[in-house]
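#structure-requests
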Amino acid sequence: MNGQQILVVATLVLSSFATTRTPGSAQDRPGAPHLFPHDVLAYARVDDMQRLRQAVGESSFAKMLNDPQLKPLAGELYLTVAELFDSVSDQFGITLDELLNIPQGEVAFAVVPFDAAQQDDAVDDDDSPEAIRQRLQSRRRRSGSIGLIGLLETKENSPLLQNLLDAMADLLRNQGYVTLYNDVAETTITTYRGPDANRPAVEYCQVDGVTVLGVGEGVVAETLRRWKIGPQGASLAQNDDFGAVLTPCVGAEETRPQLTFFVNPHGIVERVIKSRGGAAALFWPIIEDLGLGKLRGVGGSVFTGGEVFESIFHVHMLIKKPRDGFFAVVRPDSGDIHPPAWVPDDVSSYTTVSWDIANSYAGLGRILERFQGENALQRLAEEPIMRQTDVDLQSEVIDLMTGRVVVMRWYEPPARINSQTLLVGIEVKDGAQAVEVLEKLADAFPSRMVRRDQGSVIVYHGSGPPADRFPEGRRLPEPRVALLDNFILMTDSPQLLERAMRTNVGALPKLERIPDFEIVANEVAGKLDGDPPFLFGFSRAQQLLRQFYEMAEAPNMRQRLRDGGSGNPALGRLSAVLDKHDLPPFDLIAKYFEPSGDFAYDSPSGLHYTTFTLKSQR
């Protein structure tokens, strides 16, 4: 057993969350978007499991698991997983290795809505009383509900999947399901109908090395007709929203994505609320009035492999114009992406976001006025804040902010569960005015904000949890608020604030001067192709890995794992493996993890977000 097999487990998990015919598919079969119905609520697809396995097997993570110093530990971890799986494999008649090898090509799933009238009823020519009775019963089962379609290209491994389907059949029969058979396009569909209308039918068929699964009576027949007979109404591929969402995600790279997905949030909410009726239905007019129906879809793609990038993940949010109602508040703005002078070079991550605060605030006011009357924001927020703090929310807070927010994380040693610390910086237009606001807040909350300047930096200490009541072995939060240059900094780690102040005066290296950051920033600039971003991020997986590595090495954590293993077989086996094998040097593991970057921009069709990880060249 090698470490690559562990990656295959992760691959299968990804496939459950994942658009035309793919290499290795049956030549006469269209891809899933052409087989699934037009009004899909959610969709996920793996283009080709064999190609995805190959890409994952060539990844830096796979190389790490196959490193001679890590291979014994990785192999034993896989054996542990396999042995734990054996406890349930007898029930399903399949081993872990067999399960991992079932998908051989395309894997796709979709959530679909059901209506009272269904297409398969219209093409059924049987007018016998029994046939009519069954169609009426089928309509009652499907009306107002949702179903699931699954398509798995298994090729020669279809018998392995059949073992799972036979085990599923036994479970369903034990719950009162009855078995029915129906021939469509010269293919037999097996249906397990529940004992009552509240339990959806489960059905499947196998043809040409492909298994089509369905939850909800009739979904397999409809899919099979699209495949074998021809168009049965509009398909998902003809859904304009689906195409508009995936076009910038799929066309963003030169290669074909391994995974794609699409969700219709508005359709899902509408289905859930209207099917429940009663009090839930009262919320639907509010949702419509807020303009949330302008969110026409969210989708994305995942690319793995390549010479430069380990992986690339695109997400696109399709928003219909004009952006009013709720989307009047969603007002990103372009801005500076370079780290301020106080961001040190050893942060775990750095993110900067630019937002049109003034217009977002005005948009929020218009929304509140729809439901709370004229001057709602003034009555609900501005006046109470003024009474309590003497701070004018509009002129002294909103108008003071530039709209830029910087967030950085840092690993604070020693290793603890909450060792990752956070610092948020809010850029202001006038530092002197910001001090006046902070002083008003300190006067309003004297027990929660105590001024204790550090050199020339204005610092306020906040009240954290009592040390004697805080869980042992965790980092004690100690809130701090400071004004550094034109940024208000907020953190619960005095050490992180100290590092920021030292970096600002040049006592510590700055993030923007290290090669890793420059490489990521250049790659982002190349992918933006002139589009100004409102979000930019840089992160290092090594820093998070270091935290858990040092925790795993700590004697007290090892003992806790042993203690937990006494009542948990999985933890027990993991503890035994770690006791048997010493962890390799951290530098050996860290060399396989390269920095990541992410960015987002506002496009004419909506918001687009991309994150990527550089490929290790070691």
